[in-house]
Design a protein that fits this description.
The structure is a single chain. The chain is elongated, with a radius of gyration of 19 Å. The chain has three helices and no strands. By secondary structure, it is an all-alpha fold. α1 runs antiparallel to α2. The chain has one domain.
């Protein structure tokens, strides 16, 4: 995991969590739909970052497949 990816993951989860904390702390009246949406945005953004933010190296996956197919010695 690169530092850029880690920073984006932290930001993507921190923003909705800070919004939830602010809503609860200041007792702001919001709909339940907004609260659930804020809870679900963190994993949704994480999946988005995993899908688009990570470089997939095919040689890394091929090396792992060779280990799975070999018999233990």
């Amino acid at each position: 995991m690169t530092r850029k990816h880690l920073a984006l993951m932290i930001i993507a989860c921190a923003i909705p969590l800070l919004a939830l904390i602010a809503i609860l702390w200041f007792q702001i009246q919001v709909s339940i739909v907004l609260l659930v949406g804020l809870l679900l945005i963190c994993p949704a953004l994480h999946l988005l970052l995993v899908g688009f933010g990570m470089d997939h190296d095919s040689t890394h996956f091929e090396a792992d497949e060779d280990k799975v197919g070999s018999a233990p010695s």
